[in-house]
Amino acid sequence: MTTRRATVLLLLILAAFRAAAQDARPGITFIPVPYAFYTPETSLAGGVILMVVHVPEPVNTDARENVYRGGGFVTLKGQAEVFASVDYHTPGSGMRVTAVGYAARFPNKFFGIGPDASSEEDYVPIECSIDGTLGFPLTSGFFLGPRLRLFGSWMQQRAAAGALVRGTVAGSDGTALAAPGLRLTWDTRDSAVAPTNGAFVDLCGSWSFVTFGGASYPSATLDARAFVSPIPAMIAGRRIVLAAQLTAAWAGGAPPVQELPRLGGDELLRGYYDGRYRDNALLAAQLEIRLPVWWRFGVAVFGSAGQVARDPLSFRLDTTKLSGGAGLRFVLDETSGASLRVDVAVGSAGADFYLNLGEAF
Fold first, then answer.
1. pLDDT tens, position by position, 247-272
2. pLDDT of 234-244, one tens digit each?
3. What HEC string does the chain produce?
């Protein structure tokens, strides 16, 4: 639900302090960081993150810092989340161990299933998740390894006359599952937070064993991104960037509703509420032009298209959802390019406002 947003925030803050960590002497550094954001799903939200950065000894050009994070946030809509993560590199071998976990109470909205979903009902889930990957280096930029995700959800409240309380939707009472799988990652970006060139591809496949709230099912996801600076000239010390993303997801069988691929949110198809459309298959793409203007200020113009369907063979052109918009950027850290993002996006139901840290992708 909110793990992706938390991961983006953590990556941003890591990049903002990367230079200091790389220049530091071997040892452990504690970094407390307050932050705030605004989305249609959360309204205004604020929290704090505590980062622990460990620089191993000896320090050299190939040394990778290990980062441990923990924190939480609350929102004006009564949502709350605590989270923690580990990013650890084994000495010498280059193997990478990553894990992200969270627990949240997150009042939300359910709109139904399918590309023509038109209902709306409130519900309050309590969720927890742990997602870990062991990445073995193959060649430059490639990591391959096993992944294990554990997820649990309990419905604390549901709308009295809604589809969830009627029990016609798998997972409407909650669910619990374990999903072992395999992850392949390829990353040639020149920055994890503010890339100007390179590509990123994350391909995952898994089988989810559902103990209750649905049937066990296979799934696969693809997140492919590309970045290019088409004009060599720089403005205010930064380059014009053309960024593109293609996202695809599939869940077979009858997975719990919590696990259905979904459109919307502050990262994918801005201008639509997170989860406004969900189904077994998803396909989406977005394009963004990022333009530096003056000093640390910049602007971005973006457009997105996406759709959901019962299966990958059922996508229809007439159910494609479109959105577009523009926003302001303010660079918070010139070394990493970490920025504050303010976006206004327009979808089929009107305009939405977003205030967050880091780019959408």
1. 999 999 999 999 999 999 999 999 99
2. 887 889 999 99
3. CCHHHHHHHHHHHHHHCHHHHHHCCCEEEEEEEEEEEEECCCEEEEEEEEEEEEECCCCCCCCCCEEEEEEEEEECCCCEEEEEEEEEECCCCCCEEEEEEEEEECCEEECCCCCCCCCCEEEEEEEEEEEEEEEEECCCCEEEEEEEEEEEEEEEEECCCCHHHHCCCCCCCEEEEEEEEEEEEEECCCCCCCCCCEEEEEEEEEEEEEEECCCCEEEEEEEEEEEECCCCCEECCEECEEEEEEEEEEECCCCCHHHCCEEECCCECCCCCCCCEECCEEEEEEEEEEEEEECCEEEEEEEEEEEEECCHHHCCHHHCEEEEEEEEEEEEECCCCEEEEEEEEEECCEEEEEEEECCCC
Provide the domain limits for residue 116: 3-357
Report d(CA 14, CA 160) in Å as an integer.
Answer: 44
Angle, CA of 68, 73 and 74, to the nearest 5°: 165
Task: Identify the CA nearest to 12 among candidates 189, 191, 135.
Answer: 191
228 Cβ neighbours under 8 A, 6+ residues apart: 197, 241, 242
Query: Could you tell me the pTM of the whole model?
Result: 0.88
Residue partners of 160: CB distance under 8 A and separation at least 6: none
Q: Which residues contact 172 (CB under 8 A, 6 or more apart)?
A: 155, 158, 163, 164, 165, 166, 213, 257
Question: Residue type for 62, please?
Answer: D
| CATH at 148 | 2.40.160.50
Strand partners, 200: 187, 225
CA distance 167 to 276: 20
CB 208 within 8 A of CB 178: yes
Q: Which token pair is 26?
A: 């071997």
Partnered with residue 259 across adjacent β-strands are: none
pLDDT tens-digit series, residues 176-200? 999 999 999 999 998 887 899 999 9
Q: Facing residues of 344 across strands?
A: 326, 353
Distance CA 2, CA 187 (A): 23
Residue 137, beta-bridge partner list: 143
**Each residue of 9-27: pLDDT tens digit?**
555 555 445 544 444 456 7
Instruction: Using the structure block, give the residue that is written with the tokens 């880091």.
Output: 358
